[in-house]
Amino acid sequence: MRFRTQRNHMIDFLFPVALFFMFAVSALTVILLATNIYRSTTEHSSLNYTARTSMSYISEKIHQGDEDGNVSIGMFDGNDALVIKQEYSEETYFTYIYTDQGSLKEIFIKDGVEADAAAGKTILPVRSFTMSQTGKQAFSFTCVDEDGQEASCVVSIHSTSR
């Protein structure tokens, strides 16, 4: 009876090493791809936040104040402003949305109260913000954020002036 002794071949060592190497390379590739996808997603999310957020904010404010022709474009402290007139407890208040010193700002004040543009609350930093009335019932807005991304919208009002 002959006993067989186990012989060690080079392939017995190389195969597990090669398999481990392939697993490590594929895992590293997946991690690198995932970081690029994450970076791209966060950049796009950041771009969506600035310019488009200002458009959504303006649109929502107009729809909230859209009553009896109370939405108009006017002036506030020498700046073009979206003016929303509101009545509370038989008192008249105005919301002004305007740009000042590179920021889109908002201020809510009682009729007859003096305020300057610096007193407004900053909504978002912007490079430029333009507004115009495109018809009797529509307003056009264009915003360019700090990164140069431009967003625009047209908002229609549904109420009529008395």
Summarize the structure.
The protein is an alpha+beta fold and about 160 residues long. Helix content is about 35%, strand content about 40%.
Main attributes?
162 residues; alpha+beta; seven-stranded antiparallel β-sheet; 35% helix
Structure commentary:
The protein is α+β, with helices and mostly antiparallel strands and 162 residues long. 35% of the residues lie in helices and 40% in strands. The protein is built from one helix and seven strands. The chain has one helix at 10-65, and strands at residues 71-76, 79-88, 91-100, 103-110, 121-135, 138-145, 150-156. Strands 1-2-3-4-5-6-7 form a seven-stranded antiparallel sheet, covered by helices on one side. Strand 6 (138-145) and strand 7 (150-156) form a beta hairpin. The model has no long low-confidence stretch (mean pLDDT 86).
What's the helix count? 1
Strand content: 35-45%
Q: Looking at the structure, what is the overall shape?
A: rod-shaped
**Strands, total number:** 7
Order of helices and strands: HEEEEEEE
Low-confidence stretches: none
- The strand line-up of the biggest sheet is 1-2-3-4-5-6-7
Main sheet makeup: 7 strands, antiparallel
Derived from helix and strand composition plus strand pairing, the structural class reads alpha+beta
Instruction: Provide the gyration radius in Å.
Output: 30 Å
| Percentage of residues in helical conformation | 25-40%
**What separation lies between the terminal Cα atoms?**
114 Å
Question: Quick check: average pLDDT?
Answer: 86
